[in-house]
Write a structure and sequence with these properties.
binds FE2/S2 (inorganic) cluster; TIM Barrel; 9 strands; globular; six-stranded parallel β-sheet; three-stranded parallel β-sheet; alpha/beta
């Protein structure tokens, strides 16, 4: 019985690969309901009804990589490129601080302008201005030395989705210049350097199967990232994957609940992609066990250009609007935005 699998997962935080696959393949509205209730119960036990906010600053859409799914891939000549300079980034963080943000996520393509020197200067300035804030980087694959320097300058967290835990699937999503091994090595290095690490994957990406998803869940179980970003794949019109179907709200929420039960204290965002495929996607994500949202803090004139997928939301709003929009959305479902760094709670009693 699938119910027994769900109780086993809630108790032991672990299933075999075959069991994860069955949990996905044999899912029903009933199993989704049970998973959701148990996931919310765990999330409430550890984090209550607090939702953590992360101010997302999209610092550059220039990227040397050519991932087949991504709208800012190198080969997309229709993408209008931009990068923010350090002054612009600093003013985003100052504005964000005044709005109540205590975590800033600097996200961007793999843009060679952002050398260690530039980034270290930037990170130490932000930390100097706002010593009570956490800095999260999401800047792709870099060398160990680079990750080390960034950490020394004050970076606290690093988001690097593994994208898929299946090597063959990885090679179907990326050109041969990118390797699964390097991805996993980067995550391992970040862990060794004592970053709080975020992994994650898209739901419904081309060639994904319930078996590869089971491998993703096993990876999350064993690597135990502090954060896990998952959202539906959404095709972008100027990529090789333009004609593939998007991932679903239903499966994304189902997986959010499973991940909450695998790793009860994990920081789990209800992503912008989830809000893009359904007008109430982020609310539904929170009600499935997520506990983080990431309002956009980027300057309005670049938001449309940081288009990883079609129809991305929040591209016309000012930062203050985005924050208050999410605040009222969370309040409407009985949750409240927490004005804290929102670190993972590790010593929760089981
Ligand atoms: N649809 C959904 N998510 C995407 N990402 C990149 N392209 C897409 C897309 N078309 C995700 C990747 C990446 C993160 C920053 O955005 O998982 O790691
Ligand atoms: Fe950005 Fe609603 S969260 S506009």
């Amino acid at each position: 019985m699938i119910q027994d699998l769900i109780y086993k997962l809630a108790q032991s935080h672990s299933l075999s690969l075959e069991e994860y696959e069955r949990l996905i393949t044999e899912r029903s509205e009933e199993s989704a309901g049970l998973l959701r209730r148990l996931a919310v119960q765990e999330r409430v036990r550890i984090y209550g009804y607090d939702v953590y906010i992360r101010g997302l600053i999209e610092i550059s859409n220039i990227c040397k990589n050519d991932c087949y799914y991504c709208g800012i891939r190198r080969s997309n000549t229709h993408c209008e490129r931009y990068r923010l300079n350090p002054e612009q980034i600093i003013s985003c963080t100052d504005e964000g601080y005044n709005l109540g943000f205590r975590t800033f996520v600097l996200q961007g393509g793999e843009d060679s302008y952002f050398t260690d020197e530039i980034l270290c200067g930037l990170i130490s300035r932000i930390k100097h201005n706002h010593s009570d804030c956490a800095i999260t980087l999401s800047l792709g694959e870099r060398s160990r030395t680079s990750y080390e320097r960034l950490k020394q300058s004050g970076a606290d967290r690093y988001l690097l989705r593994h994208e898929t835990a299946d090597k063959t699937h990885y090679s179907q999503l990326h050109p041969s210049s990118m390797s699964f091994e390097n991805r996993i090595n980067c995550l391992q290095t970040l862990r060794e350097l004592h970053y709080q690490v975020g992994a994650g994957f898209m739901v419904g990406s081309p060639f994904q199967t319930n078996k590869t998803l089971a491998e993703d869940l096993k990876f999350i179980e064993t690597f135990k990232p502090e954060m896990c970003g998952i959202g539906p794949f959404i095709p972008h019109k100027d990529t090789p994957f333009r004609d593939y179907k998007p991932g679903t709200l239903e499966l994304t929420c189902y997986l959010l609940s499973i991940i909450r039960l695998i790793h009860p204290a994990v920081l789990l965002p209800a992503t912008t992609a989830l809000g893009t495929i359904d007008p109430l996607g982020r609310e539904k994500g929170i009600l499935s066990g997520a506990n983080v949202v990431m309002p956009n803090l980027s300057p309005v004139d670049v938001r449309k250009k940081y288009e990883l997928y079609d129809n991305k939301i929040c591209t016309g709003e000012e930062s203050a609007q985005c924050k208050s929009c999410l605040e009222s959305r969370m309040n409407a479902i009985g949750y409240k935005i927490a004005v804290t760094k929102g670190d993972i709670i590790i010593n929760e009693s089981k």
